[in-house]
Amino acid sequence: MKKKMALMMALTMVLLCGCSKKEETKVVSKDSTLSVSESILSSVDDQKVEENDVVKEFDHSLVCDRWADSGSFKMYTSEDESFDFYFDYSIPQIIDDTEDAKEINYFIECLYKDMHDTMQKASKEGQITAQEFESTEWFQTNYDCYWNATIASIVIYSTGYYSSETRYNVYNYDFSTGTQLSNEDIFALKGTTGEKFAEGIRRAAVYSTDAEMQMFFESEMPLTEAEVWYADVADDNVQLMYADYLLARAKTVYNDNINEFIPIYLDANGEIQAITHIYNMSMYGEAISILSPKAWINNELMTTSGDLLSVSSKDDGLYLTINKEEWSDSSFEEDPSFDFTKEHKIEGLYKNYKDARISWVGNGNQPYILLLSDDGMVSYVDVMAGISSGYFSAIEPLWGLESIKAFSESDDYRIVGENNDGKLIDVEDALYMMLNCRCARFEKGLLNLSNVTRYSATVTHNESGKDVEYDELIGFTDDKYQLFVRESYKKENYEGGSQVGYIYFNGMNENGMVFRFYIVGEEGEISGSMALNVYSYWDSDLADFVDGAEVTWLGGFDIFESHGNRVALQSSVG
């Protein structure tokens, strides 16, 4: 199984940019037909050493060019029009007589031989037509080879003519065993697990994508004066830009994008590097970054508020504890379904944090946890939402706050943040605006739903020991109130009804955007939390792209009976 996974990974295509200088001494083979033994003996003759010494030292020339050339020719776009086209490529091969080495070389040949043949023909003839060239997708191709003892990590990067993106192909080969290393092999070598690796890469990806968000805050939502802040928040277009950013960020952290199977290699220092997609807010465009896993740093945060709430930092994240007696004696009612006996992990946090505070803001003066990350951005946790939905999730980054160095309290005991310019920002005011000034289209945009569209699934409910199929739908009402609605109908006779209430964005996790909802109907008051991953898929029957989503239940009421598993939802009108 491990061997099959390694071979599948060898065919993985990854996109976008960047390159680094080769660290190995590259030996250009003038005759690509040399056999393995001839290549090794040639290296031996040149260096005046025994063949056993070559095998022992694993000379870096054992990864060398199979094809390498550069030059130019004329590209004819018509009979009378042409321009000079420049190419430069270097394609590697592994010099070893093992099945895995042969398979890697074969994969590389399948990927790049057509390009090599086309470039050679055009170079020899001095010209090529645009039609002949169309079959050549990649023309600027090079590679790096990083050596760690007997392990060679080969990273091939190719730039396309019709786009500026770069494709990466990665191979890790151990000359001592003659085998291609799988991700699992490399994790074992570095003393980690696939789960820990994915966590570290996801954290690194979030830091990278949030750097873009800081620039958005600075250009679109400058916190210079209170009236500017209020005006910006009230602008629907700015809110929808923020929603676009959140969707792109969620796509970045989604477990189908970052997981233990993405391409990895060992760099010159023997550290794991990963190649993954980073999505931006410009029409969910994507870039590829080479990232190092970023470790979780336990800053030993501890904050309390009247012994009612406490937040503590542990080796695997931040945890919230609520004192049942203090909570019962407070002005808030205890939720009977909430488990006060344990610590609850706060999900959706992907950074390292240096301060935490409890804020009492919003309608009803409810408690919120404010967290300051080491990149100067602020996150928050809605405590009451976590209690009612059974799932604590953070929203980060908080709309409009960036470059905050430290939290402190103002003279009137409000939480403020000092930015890099020494200016004090009212953090609680920013939180209040985020909670109370969302436009009606904000959540609908995140869910990719209009007033007349619904997500639906067929769900089996158990009624008196009998399985009964229902059509379950969620969406928004088409009236001026635009409320969240759940519809539930039996398939056999279409009996059922609807429940109306509210739905709120509540952060994100590896399963998608997290939403908490509150609905009221014949069944009474219902609340819960779920993650939705919105996507488009190709419908061959319609010959068009169709919107859909996947839902994962997180806590509280389980609308689609998912029980923690993904459920595919269809998008339809009405």
Structure description:
By secondary structure, the chain is of the alpha+beta class. It is built from 13 helices and 30 strands. The strands form six sheets. Strands 1, 2, 3, 4, 5, 6, 7 and 8 form an eight-stranded mixed β-sheet that branches. Strand 23 and strand 24 form a beta hairpin. Helix 7 runs antiparallel to helix 9 and helix 9 packs parallel to helix 13. The longest helix is centred in the N-terminal third of the chain and has 27 residues. It is globular, with a radius of gyration of 29 Å. The N terminus is likely disordered.
Which secondary structure elements does this structure contain, and how are they paired or packed?
Elements lengths: L1 H9 L3 E2 L20 H12 L3 H7 L5 E14 L5 E13 L4 H27 L1 E3 H4 L4 E11 L2 E10 L5 E9 L4 E2 L2 H7 L4 H27 L5 H9 L1 H18 L10 E3 L5 E8 L6 E6 L10 E4 L3 E6 L2 E6 L1 H6 L14 E2 L7 E9 L4 E8 L4 E5 H7 L4 E2 L8 E6 L5 E5 L4 E3 H10 L4 H7 L5 E11 L2 E11 L7 E7 L5 E14 L2 E10 L2 E16 L4 E13 L10 E7 L1
Parallel strand pairs: 2-4, 3-5
Antiparallel strand pairs: 1-7, 2-3, 5-6, 6-7, 7-8, 9-10, 10-11, 12-13, 13-14, 14-15, 16-17, 17-18, 18-19, 20-21, 21-22, 23-24, 23-30, 24-25, 25-26, 26-27, 27-28, 28-29, 29-30
Helix pairs in contact: 7-9, 9-13
Shape: globular
Strand composition percent: 35-45%
* Sheet/helix structural class: alpha+beta
Mean pLDDT, to the nearest integer, reads 82
Rg over CA atoms? 29 Å
Fraction of helical residues: 25-40%
The count of β-strands is 30
**Low-pLDDT segments, ≥5 res:** 1-56, 222-229
| Discrete helix count | 13
The major beta sheet can be summarized as:
8 strands, mixed
Q: What's the end-to-end separation, in Å? A: 46 Å
